[in-house]
Amino acid sequence: MTLYLDNAATTPVRPEVLEAMAPYLTRFFGNPSSHHEIGEAAASALDDARSRVARVLGLRAGDVMFTSGGTESNNAALKGLVLGSGRRHLVTTAIEHESVLASADYLARFHGTEVAYAPVDAAGTLTPDALADVLRDETALVSVGYANNEVGTIQDAAALAAVAHARGVPLHLDAVQAAGWLPLAGLGADAITVAGHKIGAPKGTGILAVRGRLPFEPLLHGGGQERGRRSGTPDVAGAVAIATAVTLAEDEREAEARRVSALRDAFVARVLALVPGARLTGHPERRLPGTASFVFPGTNGETVLLELERRGVVSSSGSACAAGSDEASHVLLALGIAHDEARTAVRFTLPRGLTGSLDPVANAVVAAVAAVGSRG
Question: Could you say which of 18, 132, 321, 322 is catalytic?
Answer without folding.
Answer: 321
